[in-house]
Specification:
The structure is a single chain. The chain is an all-alpha fold. It has 1 helix and no strands.
């Protein structure tokens, strides 16, 4: 490892679609970050509510 602070390694110098064309793109990993799941959970729960209950209630009004 180079300890010279003026030297940068592994710097992307141009855009790449490498991650988007990977064979496993879009597939969740077997173990996901709990903090990410906790942050997204309210969004998922509210979407589920609208789809499962909210639409039926809206149709009754």
């Amino acid at each position: 490892m180079n300890s010279d602070p003026g030297t940068l390694q592994n710097i992307v110098t141009e855009p790449s679609l490498r991650a988007l064309t990977a064979a496993d793109y879009g597939r969740p990993k077997p173990r996901q970050r709990q903090s990410l799941q906790d942050a997204i959970r309210p969004h998922i729960d509210s979407f589920d509510y609208v789809v499962l209950e909210g639409m039926a209630q809206a149709a009754q009004v």
